[in-house]
């Protein structure tokens, strides 16, 4: 093989080694953080699975209409801890079978929602959105929740907490 041909192959190999990690990173599926306004628009305009990953007591305080409760994890301060088989990692089979289904995930303030969104992406879901600021931001923006009168007084902290 002549020198010019070897230089050509070396240049192609070098280009491949430089470009391929970027291509792999670009193809990795991630979730999207969305604002309360964007989430509301998604709910109104699209067929979407709404996943609430709060604790049962948080869900009882109020939830977005149509949301399915599958808690991500127990909170240290929660006296009514759930067993591991009642939490999201063990209940993935309750999510839509179609991995292309659009899923909106939320919790109270967004942290557990982000964790759950990562878990869903790792499980192969491709259209996952996390509500930034969680239900707190949703309520502060004036969007409706489903709540009983008794639970509503527990939700006032969402309206009164600083933005």
From TrEMBL:
Single GO MF annotation: thiosulfate-cyanide sulfurtransferase activity
Domain Rhodanese residues, every copy: 44-147
Gene3D superfamilies associated with the record: Rhodanese-like domain
Name recorded for this polypeptide: Rhodanese-like domain-containing protein
């Amino acid at each position: 093989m002549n020198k010019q041909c070897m230089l050509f192959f070396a240049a192609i190999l070098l280009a491949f080694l430089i470009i391929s990690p970027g291509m792999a990173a670009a193809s990795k599926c991630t979730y999207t953080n969305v604002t309360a306004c964007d989430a509301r628009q998604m709910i109104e305009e699209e067929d979407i699975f709404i996943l609430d990953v709060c604790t049962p007591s948080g869900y009882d305080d109020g939830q977005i209409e149509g949301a399915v409760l599958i808690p991500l994890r127990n909170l240290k301060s929660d006296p009514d801890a759930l067993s591991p088989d009642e939490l999201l990692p063990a209940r993935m089979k309750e999510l839509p079978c179609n991995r292309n289904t659009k899923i909106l995930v939320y919790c109270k303030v967004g942290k557990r929602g982000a964790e759950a969104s990562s878990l869903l992406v790792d499980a192969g879901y491709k259209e996952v959105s996390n509500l930034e600021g969680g239900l707190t931001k949703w309520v502060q923006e004036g969007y409706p929740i489903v709540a009983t009168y008794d639970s509503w007084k527990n939700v006032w902290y969402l309206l009164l907490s600083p933005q």
